[in-house]
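PT: before anyone asks, these are the final sequences, not the draft ones from last week. 806 residues across everything. Please model them as a single complex and drop the result in this thread when it's through.
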Amino acid sequence: MAKPAPQSQAEMRQRNLSRVLHALAAEGPLSRAEVAARIGLTRAAVSTLVDELSRGGLLVERGPGRSGAVGRPGTGLLLTDRGPCGFGAEIGVDHLAVAVMDLRGRVRIRLGQETRNQGAEPAAVLATLTGMLRDAARDAAGAGLRPTGLTVAVPGLLARDAGSGRSRLLMAPNLGWRDIDLAAGLPTGLGPVTVENEANLGALAELWSAGGAGVQDSFVHVSAEIGIGAAVVVEGRLLRGAHGFAGELGHVPVRPEGRPCSCGGRGCLETYAGEEAVLRAAGLEPGPGVRLGALAARCEAGDAGALRAVRQAGTALGIALSGAVNLLDPRQVVVGGALARLAPWLLAPVSRELARRTSVAAGGRSTPVPVRASPLGPDGPLLGAAGFTVRAALDEPSRLLRG
Amino acid sequence: MAKPAPQSQAEMRQRNLSRVLHALAAEGPLSRAEVAARIGLTRAAVSTLVDELSRGGLLVERGPGRSGAVGRPGTGLLLTDRGPCGFGAEIGVDHLAVAVMDLRGRVRIRLGQETRNQGAEPAAVLATLTGMLRDAARDAAGAGLRPTGLTVAVPGLLARDAGSGRSRLLMAPNLGWRDIDLAAGLPTGLGPVTVENEANLGALAELWSAGGAGVQDSFVHVSAEIGIGAAVVVEGRLLRGAHGFAGELGHVPVRPEGRPCSCGGRGCLETYAGEEAVLRAAGLEPGPGVRLGALAARCEAGDAGALRAVRQAGTALGIALSGAVNLLDPRQVVVGGALARLAPWLLAPVSRELARRTSVAAGGRSTPVPVRASPLGPDGPLLGAAGFTVRAALDEPSRLLRG
DNA sequence: GTATTTCGTCATGGCCGTTAACAAATTAGT
DNA sequence: ACTAATTTGTTAACGGCCATGACGAAATAC
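LR: through. Structure below.
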């Protein structure tokens, strides 16, 4: 007889512990009373929660807090910067990177390495990455940080295996990889390994970068590593799709009977605004090292061909995005990843198309959807990966406390 | 000093009461032990929950349940069909309708009336509807049903007012209405009034029609009352958008420099597959009474012009939908509302375009997204409205018990 | 007819958040 | 300088809720 799995009793406690952690992670130092107000519990209840977390070493007191107001000042509580931490890694087309983030969300360790991963043997790349992770783990131990998990950002399509809970990499066109279990090639000992699409992680990084301008909980995030990926965040949650394939903006039809696309369709956005298409339109021959960065350089130099190519790509992107905006009604559109470097020339045509095509659909609201470049730029996926691990840890206080 | 609002203590109880109700609503009669297994509580806990609900008159025992298996048979529990009920109403272009649904999800009372609402004075229409609602309320009282709320389906754009929590109708093109507080013109005494877009409610009806073929929790639902509306359901939740305007499939660009649209854009889906466009393409003059039904009749008669018009509309719809499918990765696409009547001729071209344009995007999965017609058809919005009220009631057991 | 299985209930116990009261720490006012 | 007011954090009593374990009840299996 399978026991119905104990539930709902200790679960409330766990959730409340987690809510305290998240409140502190989101808003710097807070007193117990402030936490209580934020999460809707009484001061007494928060006291016991804080006690438990404090004895577990997850948070520290930072002396008397604010002053100037009437009444006894509260003691500032802060998440520890010496306990658990989250590992993030990124496998790019021409680089590998690792970051270690503490519970406060600060990046404490960061390693990067240029490598040609395109067409390389996955095992070799994973071996290199494993080496970097071990280095980072050593540094982390030196700083008093204890790993709670690893999240890897990959430019490819993933399928979550229902059985094992692990994600398989189905296809990574830019790497030339197919059907690989990445987690199997990475070190154990850092905790559970999650593999996630890098566009999705870039969007999450954007979502979590509370310091930045836009703390928007609902937006479309466009990046361009695998063709053109869009990640959709709705009400603070990432939209993954029924099979995990959501966000394929690259194959949204822009001109229904236009250029044939490798996907079998015609006139997909990718054939107009994909990296290869744009480079060719600008008169550049795509190849190792010749990527969007090179195009950005030409634009900066005022190269007319490059500027025209980017403008045209922006128009196509704007058309595809206006479909997405009509359908999803996001609060804003964010251009991130490598695409962010082209923002100075890309944003205007994108905004123009969006303004043209989403006016009435938006219920006649005066201002069209704002389009902006991600301040994180190419760092998004790596920060998102590390942040993902940290958030996951904060969601499970019991795991952190037992350690 | 604002009290932090008591929380988390009685809330767990409420949620568990609600979970019992939902379990019984979803799967016919269940014994206490079966409920316990479904919602993950112990039999003892469920016993007390059932006790409370039973004393409140929300559920009834239906004698010994299943037999044939070993062991003492459980007593079948069922939601009452004589207590609380939900009201739903629909304001269509040429009809009004009211339905009363009991907690079991069965429609107990249903009234319909042909009226020309297009261009009519809102107050007059609301007065007629109020009369129908009063009739229904009288019948309900006779059947021992007590109203817990009213949900109204409207073919228009709504804005939720953050302050009052009420929804304002911003714009209903087909009715010619603008900026109206519908709830203000409807009877009080039925409980809280909710106004919601009819495409959204149609999709929810589809989601809740567990009896039907597809118990899919993630799909795109297309209907065609206001231009062309799509409702997106993700993980069982309706995607509303940041401003509540999500689902404007009608203004997704299909041919970027195609026909000018009333929205200011060009080549919107609506200009190819909207009701007016399709009727004209089929050689019908749109007008009162001449609507999609007339077109369906011609198709049935084998009218070549009509068939061609529908085929072309289907192609345009398929193009727009392939954008949506690439972006959202739904488990299926459902054609509902008035559009469902054209399904026999519409589905093939839609599927064809989807198959062409979403193959690789779907990660090379062999079967493309299935497209099917809603079995509910034009009834969807009304059923969704009544169902919405009932679900809302089941979410708040305390409200039902105090009654 | 007995053993077995499953259902529903009851008493017990542990955990958790609320309530209410209180000491501590600071500002405002005179 | 001293009192009043205000806010914080802690403590003890209380009540609610679910889990555990045992038990009688009601059916099937042998």
